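Dear support,

Our group has been running a series of protein-ligand predictions, and this particular one with iron/sulfur cluster is the one our PI (initials K.S.) wants archived with full inputs and outputs. We had some confusion internally about which version of the output was final, so please treat the block below as the authoritative record. The input we submitted was:
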Amino acid sequence: MGKLTNFKRSLWVFHASGGSCNACDIEIIAALTPRYDVERFGIKLVGSPRHADVLLVTGAIPRDFADKLRRIYEQMPDPKAVVVIGCCGTSGGVFYDSYNIAGPIDEIIPVDVYVPGCPPRPEAIIDGVVKAWLKIEKLEKELEGKKG
Ligand code: SF4
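Confirmed final output from the archive:
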């Protein structure tokens, strides 16, 4: 993974929770509290996927949420990245093979970064967001090259 050398702009993040137990969601909120204060780096939670660069997804995805998750992803402008927070979204976690689960998130939408843990610590979530940021910067450079 490359090194983030310059922040050209802030990074806006939308958070979607599927069938989460809420512990992963609480760890995301913890990353925003004064102890970690990710907003000082320009990482900000937004209320609409239409304004977001990065989608954070928590929890296993129930069947009736799979289409909603696809629509959330499709509403995000390019370039964009998806970060799965926690084992539930990666593999199903404690809900693995449940009749009501649509499958791992990467079978529903493309995933760029996996943050393991149950729940992962805020430091790991911040690391996952920075990895997504690197990917977006790379995609932006590729798009600029094509315009060229
Ligand atoms: S990974 Fe663990 S903490 Fe996160 S939603 Fe699943 S059960 Fe809860």
